[in-house]
Structure prediction request, 743 residues.
Amino acid sequence: MPKLSLVVPVYKVQGYLPECLDSILGQDCTDFEIIAVDDCSPDGSGAILDEYAKRDDRIHVIHLTENVGLGRARNAGLEKATGDYVLFLDSDDTLSDGALAAIRDRIDAAGDPEILIFDYARTYWDGRVRPNLRADLLKEEGPATFSLAERPQLLDLLQIVWNKAYRRDFVTRTGLTFPPGYYEDAPWTFCSLISTERIAVLDRVCVYYRQRREGGNILKTVSRKHFDVFDQYQRVFDYLDAHEELAEWRAPLFRKMVDHYLTVLERPGRLPQDARAEFFHRASADYRARVPKGFTRPGGGRGHKYGMLERDAYTTMVSALAAVKLRQRVRTRTRTALNRSKRGAMGAFYQSQLRLPLDDDLVLFSAYWNRSVSCNPAAIDAELARLAPHMRRVWAVRAENAGRVPKGVEVVRVGSREYWSAVARAKYLVNNVNFADSVVKRQGQIHLQTHHGTPLKTMGLDQQKYPASTDMDFEKLLERCDRWDYSISANQFSTVIWERVYPCSYTTLETGYPRNDVLANATAEDVRAARAALGLADGAKAFLYMPTHREYQPGFTPPLDLGRFARELGPDVTLLVRGHYFYGSSPHVDELRRTGRVVDVSGHARVEELYLAADALITDYSSAMFDYAVLDRPIISYVPDWDVYSAVRGTYFDLLQEPPGAVATTQAELLKLLSSGAYDSPETTERRDTFRRRFCEFDDGHAAERVVRRVFLGEESLPPIVPFDERHHAPTPAQALELVERA
Prediction:
């Protein structure tokens, strides 16, 4: 049996769950088991647990068939625990390095206490770490073990279950279980502490308590469920009534009860406004029913609040709270003035448009910082024209790029009156990046964030770990992301990352990427047309070379010698190069262009057509690899600077270990792969299949339809994802030629 059992209840935490599990599995103490309880989570949390369990037999997963809530999920895990000690860890929190070894060692040194209390710290999205303000209570002074009567001030710690290790035979003997409802920690922690004679403390931060920016816990949820606190303290006092020997704790626990009730009343964002009076009267009734004989109220303002509860003086309490709010309003006048100034700077015309009604049939699209009509927004635009032709579809484009817009597309130039009118009045705003900070999210507007690629490199808040790669204002970033109503994902991998690095209150749509529909649905004629548009001869081999940008380089120097490439691969090979204008203007390169051996496709309007035309893709860290994989054609990873890129920019997986196909780290290796044909082998095909199943999970050719039906038409029942092995994908250029010739 293991020394420690960690019970981890799991519900809607797919963005944080891997970090939680990694923090446990990475401990230097290995004498533990994890009992992970999937509380019928509607997201991908259950699948994440199963994947981890496959890799580590210390993880035991319980999948509940209905959602039972945090307390009962903990009970389910507790029943399966076999360790000497039981710990509870919430699935969005993490253990500190060395925490389990420190807990184990302290347990041994203290002679197996029934409860060990350890320290924690709060962590925030911006990297701040705030220590426990009552950490002084955990000083390892005096006897190694003691009773609560010897250190009653421990009741002043935040009464939570996850900062303690409980000896399992003590839990069994006392019959402790978690009740249903909010505030389920209160009966467990209070009843366990007053029941044990052998407590020990560990003056060390063992748990990082995540303060989720977007909420996610009961303390930031407006609900009548906060009335559950009355049932929880009923359980505490029922326990006292059943154990006369614990009568000395009635007064301290009465004080904890009253303080808890007052906290619920005073903190904004908990009780609905129309439920506050009812809550107060119930709290007052509990006060009068349970006040111990001879109880002395605390002094000062806190004591006055106790008195108002005792007298059931709700009107007096409301007046006192109103005075506090007035003082708060006075303190925020400066901030309000600044906000008004900012709004005024947006322009009187925009302000006037914001006062007009929304146009329910107006959709404003943008892509790549208003540079083009492309990517996922363009695919959604096309599908919207098919399914909802009554809607007016408008694109925001910079003035200098307006001439490159396809015919028939309605455009508003960024900064114009027409633009600000559309931003203010459009019911729907669709973008693959964020709209400008000056854009106001109106009530009733729907912002659809499509993203523009599956991430290999770190994104969002994860970029804080790699300051050399960005000077981003992360607070501003999240304010922009707060406007999102929907976030599109092409795979579970992306979903988990987006929800963690953009912690805002949007709904994830696991639809696949709309821009990849054309790759899944293309015919032989589409492939032939794409090649013909580029002047590619039948039977000629075309490699698409798409290197990505390096933030750490002031200018990009191509790691690929184009002249040598063309010379060694011969006249039947054409290199399509898409990227910056980085290959020089030497006469030799110009000659290669004239012969068609090198084709600059950087300005090509639709990258999807380049994918269809190419026999294989050569790239490095670009998200192009994830999209091109939909075609099930060879992908070569040319990564001569992987060590530098991964260290400076940060990546989510090791491309050398999990590539989509062949890998080359030098130009000589790349040329050898291409000239020998080794880039397309059974081994690379197997790698590609694994890669595709992971990253093309939802790309079945119906992504745009799902998005339009869900977001614009309000349909809940969407076309199901086509099983992976039943999907169609476009023929290769060779197959397309054969099919067309047969026809």
